[in-house]
Amino acid sequence: MNELDFLVDLNLNADRQGPGGVKETLRALSLIDLDVTQNIKIADIGCGSGAQAVDLALNTNAQITAVDIFPQFLDKLEQKANDLQLSERITVQCESMDKLSFDKNSLDVIWSEGAVYIMGFRNGVQYWHNYLKPGGYIAVSEITWTSKERPAEIENYWQNAYPEIATASEKIKVLEEIGYKPVGFFTLPEHCWMDNYYLPLQKEMAAFLEKYQGNDIAKKVVEDNIDEIELYKKYKEYYTYGFYVAKKI
Ligand SMILES: C[S@@+](CC[C@H](N)C(=O)[O-])C[C@H]1O[C@@H](n2cnc3c(N)ncnc32)[C@H](O)[C@@H]1O
Question: Is there an atom of ligand 1 within 6 Å of 20 CB?
């Protein structure tokens, strides 16, 4: 197993694999001016174990295709969809977000929470633009600076981890340059990080370390996550996830 496999395993039993919340997913959905009571087509890219795919299915009549590269997450989502009798409206698709098999111009909505960074924001929203119908919407959450200046420690950490981190106005400019009309933006509050993501993840750590006792890669994965949580607690006033909703012109 490599580092990524361990990271997937650590995250597998949690409800979500990144910061977010039901209220925030529905807030972004409310910015989309389409009739979601109809059987519209939504793709949830980098869906993980499907927190958002399920919330979207419960609050629309959409047909949802949930895409992730790790089948372990998709198995969890299929189980959840089955338990909630949503299997007819949630389909899973195991493929990479940069090699999608959808038809061009075929989707009403592309949803992606906490995953576009894998391609990089600009690359991701540009590539996905091809798959939306004209007039379709993108709803993505992305790490975002919430102040113009930051202490060096957090600036250096994020520049190293994800150099494309930027302020909301810079992200919105990218959307406009690519051919989207921005329709809404808001930031994720602290409980989306701590209560919904970091605390459940922390609860998994003891059992994970026990399972992989003596494995240095597993130990490093836990240590890296603890560092990330500590940095968030220290510097949370400087960054969060921004939720961006925009319409393909
Ligand atoms: C931070 S998690 C967010 C998961 C989920 N959207 C959520 O908020 O709970 C990022 C997700 O992207 C997936 N992922 C990583 N690389 C990918 C790729 N190349 N193509 C598709 N999904 C990928 C991961 O497996 C993971 O589920």
Answer: yes
